[in-house]
Amino acid sequence: MSARDASRFIRRDGPSLGEAETHARLERTWATPPGLWGWLSSVDHKQVGRRYIVTAFVFFLLAGLLALAMRMQLAGPNQTLLTPDRYNQIFTMHGTTMMFLFAVPVMEAFAIYLVPLMVGTRAIAFPRLNAFSYWVYLAGGVMLWVAFILNVGPDVGWFSYVPLSGPQFSPGKRADFWAQMVTFTEVAALAVAVEIIVTVLKQRAPGMSLNRIPLFVWGQLVTSFMVVFAMPAVMVSSSMLIMDRLIGTHFFNPAEGGDALLWQHLFWFFGHPEVYIIFLPATGFVSSILPTFARRPIFGYTALVLALVATGFLGFGLWVHHMFATGLPHLGNSFYTAASMAIAIPSGIQIFCWLATLWDGRPRFATPLLFVIGFIVIFVLGGLSGIMLASVPIDSQVHDTYFVVAHFHYVLIGGAVFPLFGAIYYWFPKFTGRMLSERAGAWNFGLFFVGFNIAFFPMHILGLIGMPRRVYSYPAGLGWDDLNLLSTAGAVILAAGVLVFLGNVWHSLKHGLVADDNPWGAATLEWATASPPPSFNFVHIPVVTGSNPLWEEADGLPVVSGLRVDQRELLLTSVVDAAPEVREPSPEPSIWPLLSALAVTILFIGSIFTPWAVVWGSIPLAVGLIGWFWPKSAPDTPEPVIE
Amino acid sequence: MNNGAPRFAADLAHLPTSAHGPRATTWWGTLGFILIEATGFALAAAAYFYLMGQTETWPPGQSPPDWLWGTLQLVLMLASLWPNWWTDRVAHADDLRKVRIGLVVMSAVGLLTLVVRAFEFGALNCRWDDNAYGSMVWVLLGLHAVHLITDVGDTLVLTVLMFTKHVEPRRFTDVTDNCVYWNFVVAAWVPLWALLYVVPRLV
Amino acid sequence: MTARLPIPSPCSAGRGRDPCGAWEGEGSVIPRNLALTLPRLRRGPLPLPPGAGEGVARSASSRQWPWHRAALVLCLFALTACERVQHGIQSALDPVGQQAGRIAGLWWLFLAVLAAVYAVVLVLLLVAAIRPRRRRRLPPGPAFRPEEPIERRLTRGLTAWAVGTAAIVLTLTGFSYAVDRDILALGHRAELTIEVTAKQWWWQVRYDDPVPNRSFETANEIRLPVGVPVRVVLKAQDVIHSFWVPNLHGKTDLIPGRVNETVIVADREGRYRGQCAEFCGFQHANMALDVVAMPRDQFEAWRESQLAPAVAPSDERSREGQRVFLTSACVMCHTVRGTTAASRVGPDLTHVAARPSIAAGTLPYSKGNLAGWIADPQRIKPGSQMPVVGLSADQLQSVLAYLDGLK
């Protein structure tokens, strides 16, 4: 038997199987089937991640258009471009879309795409759950926007305070669509959180002990745990709301022993951690981009990890600072002041470590680094205004004014969207195999940075001189006119920056420079494979010997062999040391996640109209889930004997 | 960037292809969902106490739920821990015959708890739309009932799989994960039982 | 330039003169064609002196200006912005009460400290970005390993930074706590109690008195004696609102099923503006109230005038107006003390013509604005609970004559 014949029977990677042959066999095993059916049943984390990113960006653009509509309305006093009804729907949709359909999902999307690559595994844990989560998220977002277009969009603000959102003051279905959208997106987010936790804990490349996990992955791990503990709160509260509205429960009805503040406690127990759920992945972007462009390892790895964990814990201890004006006992409020201020300490540590990395490095000012610098300039200001908001007396003045609007846009756009844009410029070559234009990138950054500050800085002053948030109009003569006009002008510049970005992406997808595996000279594992990565991520699972593997092993990473190439197989390693433990099969593509997601969609949307949908809708859902988990009739090909 | 021949550091062909407990991903996945649901229970219980604190009398104008069915449920669930533990043990040992017995017993126990749960709803002495107390009680019991239904459904499907041609090592892992989940369902019921049946009699 | 308003003249029921001359607004002639004139009627500018920035606002939209003129405009803009910050009838930075004063003081302290911190961060960032260009001795490429002594120095820097951050936030927390206690202590010596009930989308204001028949109700205006701490009891009838008069104090929510309290005091005479600060539905934007601080004797005079029942209509037209009022849908919602109109759904109108504004601060009070409001409230305040009553032009004239007499 010739060597070539022999290799046909080898079902594992290793020295006896040539590289080209290994590649081809893995491709046969892992590739998503072609055609529409294959597209619908894909479980490849990179495809699902890309879909998530694109969908989240579509929602970002839609919500951005709503923001422009609001800015047009507020450009001058007494404008009548929008009716109060339309305006209230628009600001609710803007906040809801940005928080639930853009910010959290886009961060998860990057985790879905990058975490398996960064930890050196072939697939995400529970890939079918991953596909399911995407379809559920898509269904929730589409439902909300269809409702909005049909003029039944929610109009009670993104935190839907009761009793305004309750059955008496919001008749009709508007608030129900909001509540069910929450359920959709939280189901998706919780599923992704579990996948990320398990991927990080069990699927890391051999040698990637806890102290060698890339900071982006640490950020995503802490975030996922925060999701696990925070999201149930909003699911509980939105379910209570929808039950109050549909089947006559009285959770929030003071006349029957309910309480309006219960909603606020439950919502903010989720709502404040939510901010960190958005922000911590963004710090991961920063900690990935900075070492690459400062060209030195990150300073203070341990301090940064501890800061992430500390933020994760503290994030749950400050929800009451959203409720200082509700008349809660003052002593309790002071505790939450202290907790809210304490979170400045881990944030300060992070900022210092990033500055130190830049200070001791030899920076190359490519677009991703520009966005990181913009991030520091803007986010620090947002953090400092956050310290002001933590103070009970100051908050009593600026709470629910444009000062708060300015603050959270500094924190969320500065703290999350700037790093996100940096991340897109950084990983675009990995995602697509092509570089984005650096020149357009500089314009993108410049317009974005200038436009952002012109749009949002004046809002601090507006809040202090009395302008409440969520007003569809304001009278002349209160000194708000010019600042509002300026803010609108800034919003237009910001929008121009987004247009440049879209143009850049559009052009670069076809004409951008072709990227090699590691165009930026970065240190982490996702750059150790092709751009874009093959369906199986790595030909051989790499072995990690340090925190910056590609810098420390400049001659190529050592790898392990012995994983099957004829079946989808993953390497599981131990939680702390990442020592190899098990070779575990990974699921094949399946249409059942999509069908189950459809069943969930029918159940959730149906339940807006009749509680019986929960009963009857559970039948197709059960069918979907059984189909999903039902094993293939033929047992898997038996384990090959070691040749 | 493996331009040349890869540097093979180790061969892992000898590793097992399935494992029980924390060595498997499904165990961690189950744990993740248990954490999520436990948080949900904890928050619902916190809401119960919060509403209790807002009211003068608790329950407001109703009698507390009748002892009988809820306590029977408690006894039944605690008793089910033993066959559940046994099933878990024989699944670890990949003993198909005993696993089949264990699953049949656990399916029967599960169905029985569902029947008892139906009677529990009838003995709550309140409706969900009476007042906030009624709403809270129904939701707490309903939330737990949803967990019961899911776990019993899962057990039934696993039982069917174990009696058909789908038996392979990974099915035993599924059985052990299902046992972990049942333990959680029981563990959740103990404080919930106290909340629903004992607390209203204490205040 | 000052934004301070003319101090309201003493007003009594008999004089029948609007206390706030500046609010006169459009004339009191009823427009013949309401539809044509309404846009002009809608919310005439609030009576602030015209700001120097108005020309700037227009120029900002012009695109053909050269750069240096744009820079000049920006400077002017910054100056007028500062001016605005200093003076405003709805500004937290222009405190006229002790509570708002303490808060503003705390705010400036926070601003000074945090601006200094921000400056330090920006300088460090700038240095970090520029400095390495000179460090050519370092080997190129990412294989570069951090130098031990530098790492040690940076670690010491990190420790100092963390300790510094902790010290700053601890200090600020201390100051914040002290001011909070201080404000709380101020509240213990209130002499007067007002009960404010927020409704979609207006404020019901009740002046309590130990003597029951000396209590009275008004709407969308609060008058205070200067220097007297006033306890404001806060309730909500429908959804959550928030009571906020920035010149006097921070906000406190009004929550259905709960009773909150705040204490305000005005140290200077003047008219200030408050606004609902918690989103409360359709017309959240137009739920304002006027707060007028006046000398004690003037306040007492005002109080006496408010205690009196409505003035009886004096001429034929007004009498006809009263008849129309009492036989139309008006009585379904409004009270006019001294008549059979006694419903409490909408604002008490006993002394409506003596108030600075109508429709919860939406329009300055004038007969013309009142006409527009009654003729088509849904146009001025869409979604408002005030329906179109459907009066004929003649009936409308009469009702206006009647209501305008209710000083």
UniProtKB/TrEMBL annotation, chain A:
The keyword Electron transport applies. Gene3D superfamilies: Cytochrome c oxidase-like, subunit I domain (1.20.210.10). The chain crosses the membrane at residues 52-70, 90-119, 131-150, 177-201, 213-235, 275-294, 301-322, 334-357, 369-390, 402-428, 440-465, 485-506, 615-631. Signal peptide: none annotated. Residues 39-545 form the Cytochrome oxidase subunit I profile domain. It holds the Pfam family COX1. Its EC number is 7.1.1.9. Pathway: Energy metabolism; oxidative phosphorylation. Keywords: Cell membrane, Copper, Electron transport, Heme, Iron, Membrane, Metal-binding, Respiratory chain, Translocase, Transmembrane, Transmembrane helix, Transport. This is Cytochrome c oxidase subunit 1. It comes from Azospirillum rugosum.
Automatic annotation (TrEMBL), chain B:
It is a multi-pass membrane protein. SUPFAM superfamilies: Cytochrome c oxidase subunit III-like (SSF81452). The chain crosses the membrane at residues 27-51, 67-87, 99-119, 139-161, 181-199. Keywords: Cell membrane, Membrane, Transmembrane, Transmembrane helix. Its main location: membrane. InterPro entries: Cyt_c/ubiquinol_Oxase_su3 (IPR024791), Cyt_c_oxidase-like_su3 (IPR000298), Cyt_c_oxidase_su3-like_sf (IPR035973), Cyt_c_oxidase_su3_a-hlx (IPR013833). It is found in: Cell membrane. Residues 28-201 form the Heme-copper oxidase subunit III family profile domain. Pfam families: COX3 (PF00510). Belongs to the cytochrome c oxidase subunit 3 family. This is Heme/copper-type cytochrome/quinol oxidase subunit 3. The lineage of its organism: Bacteria, Pseudomonadati, Pseudomonadota, Alphaproteobacteria, Rhodospirillales.
